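Discussion board: Methods & Data

I've been asked by a reviewer to show the raw model output for two of the constructs in my manuscript, not just the figures. I'm not sure how much to include, so I'm pasting the format here to get opinions. Each protein appears as its amino acid sequence followed by a line of discrete structure tokens. Is this the kind of thing reviewers expect to see in a supplement, or should I convert it first? Here is construct A:
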Amino acid sequence: MKHVQHPHRGIVRFAQTAIACAAIALVAGCGGGSSSNNSSSTPAAGVNMQVVSFGTSLSDAGTYSPTIQADFGGGRFTTNPGEVWTQKVSEYFGNSLTPAFEGGFGLALSATGGLDYAQGGAMVYTGGVSNTSAVIAGASEQPVSWQITEYLQQHSSFNANQIVLVEGGANEILALLDSSGAGLTSFGTALAGTSFSTLVATPSVQASTIATLEAQGFTATQAAALVPAAIALELYQASPSSFSSITPILSAATELATLVNTKIAGTPKTVVVTVPDIGKTPAALAADASVSATPGAANSPDQALSLVTAMYNLTLLQGLATSISAKTVIPVDTFSWLDSTITNASSLGFSVTNTATACNLTQMQANATAYATANPAVLNGLTPAEYGAQFASSLFCSAQTLVAANAPTTYMFADLVHPTTELHAQFAAYVETQLAAAGIGKAP
């Protein structure tokens, strides 16, 4: 498999800092918009709740915005100046949500007093810059475990008037697309050497697996959808050394469940959202194209990524089972929601699903490459092409770099993995509906 640039982490490893937008010509103008704030005395949810967020770029309200917004008009991993879903949920419950830390890309990471601890590029419990004052270039990518520890150091505890939003694991899965895609190839090869396909197609095995999953608390519909993931997990558990490339992924799921169970669940209203179907992202379709695979075929990258994501989510939910049963954790099935949204895209107002991006990534990369070619001092050991590739991300995307003025509302994806403003808003409404079903606020 040819290399597919990792959308979250490639940027933060190599992007140079504080480049004037006039010089690099990535945008026609500088600056971005500000977050909206619900000033109504009675929130739309009908109840005022404080929202705290932990996670990755999908939830990051703008950790890296001080430099990025000023120089590129970006700052969040979406169609800027749009907001991410965590901000929308917070506003629905009566409060704005801002980054807990800001910095990176030339600025030291510093606490701001905000309650969104999510950081673009974050893993669950590995990675990150240990000395946050030494963030000189790139992003800090502090893991979810660090984020929770920092919150507790600053605030001591959670309270009953809080909604805590938690997500993580997407970066571990996307790492399978790093390097030459060897991790994904290794997983596919290992799976092909088992009886996986036969087991999944055997009615008695299907029935037995569904019964087991239902006994664990999954609905009949959920259990049926999780059959392949459950069977693959059994094969992994029987021979983990054969599936070493996905061990960090499944370990992250177990660790995230442990963090939630032991550090958060119990006092606040805790929401854990599963990882969206990575196999349905433009990044997955790009991986298919790189090896001339048919999307959805048994040996295609998108199918493998979907299966690994489902295995991660199943491991996470099984780890949270006791807390879910005790109703101290509300799980949100992001995986199925994304699949359903893609299927029903037209009726939801989208004209482009996962086949293209709202941000003009090709032009953004070309402009940055041309700048680096003319100014080799910024390369720091990279080729101009490698340098330019780091800017093909929604983090640097603004109204001036969209493929069309209405792209934030008509496209589903801003870049290869990150949602547009509209997709973020629709997911926020879905989360709000799930909260209402759990007795927290009212549905939108």
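Construct B, same format:
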Amino acid sequence: MNQGILIRNARMLQTRKGSLSARCDLLIEDGRINTIVPSDDGETLRRLLERPAVHAPKQIDAEDAVLMPGLIDCHVHVLASQMHLGRLGRLPNVLAVLRTLPILEGMIRRGFTTVRDAGGADDALRQATSDGTILGPRIFPSGRALSQTGGHGDMRERSDVIEPCGCTVKVAAIARVVDGVDAIRKAVREEIQRGATQIKIMASGGVASPNDPIHFLGYSEDEIRAAVDEADNASSYVMAHAYTARAIKRAVRCGVRSIEHGNLVDDEAAAMMADAGAFAVPTLVTYDALANEGKALGLPAASLAKIESVRGQGMRSLEIFAKAGVSMAFGSDLLGPTHRLQSEEFKIRASVLGEAAAIQAATSEAARLLRCEHELGDIFEGAIADLLLLKANPLEDIQVLCGQGDGIKWVMKEGQLISGTAV
């Protein structure tokens, strides 16, 4: 018989509505929310517990505390254990993975039960967090991101010798260099064959790479369309690193579904995204982290010089996306020791958009981006039992979701309480 878990007297944060429910009881079975009933409906609960399939469920009294769905971060790099990404690619694979373990554990203890990795994580890491081999969130891996020669994923120095026959080259732990329509089609197929749930491409210059100014465009439109076409053939989609309005418009025009960062968006680009149903995944916390700690942590000088060119416009981008009606999901994009700042993104979002929108970005909107809204991102019967019990109401004080999980009483992933959290 299935023992299950019965959570009593919880006030559910219904993320889609942005409101709290009256006290409810929830029965968890087989890792999912089986039934939700009002706490004062004792008769329904009694009949429910008398079903033959339910065997003396473990009971947890929430004592009127706020229960909310597990958080979702749609832009992480779990393998990025150090700031200098070029050197990261030289680490032995085993060492790179071992350094990932505390990063993953920190994420789930901060309440992130699901993450979308934007380059680096593979199917092996997904399996390891899924079957409990290692402690961490559910992972939606992108495999290695695709970059053109000299693009954001090309970490080679200008002095490096480039082999003339290298149509696809691994140059970093999180990316590979691929040029040409046919090579891109093959690369997308390879990453999907290896377990990628979505494809990441570099559609503009970036901060952490040495030779690509922010305004550079990544890939021709034919190359972007090839990636989108192959991803769509596999019932997947493309997410694109893109900063400038020009890069965003090209990507959306070619069918890209998710724009990462987007700091230099303008009204026209945002309107195009809204019309196409494309998502934005701003990652504003990483620019503060890079500016404040990047030099000390080994970020190259060329990257340090780029930070302010995108940092200052980040807050304005939230306003532009919101005004156009663009759906926004939560992202952090942190590197090395700055992973500890993951939850500080909530304060940045809430200061511009309000608490409810900041929470939705990491729950219901993020689940829609992942195409998992039927089982993640909110509390409803049939949903996966990823749950957080909080010490305060985040609709009134977003600080309860910040820090290292200090405002979280316990974390549940698929009906399993994470060891070390209070019950």
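Answer (T.O., handling editor elsewhere):
This is acceptable in a supplement if you add a one-line summary per construct. For B, something like: The longest strand covers residues 19-29.
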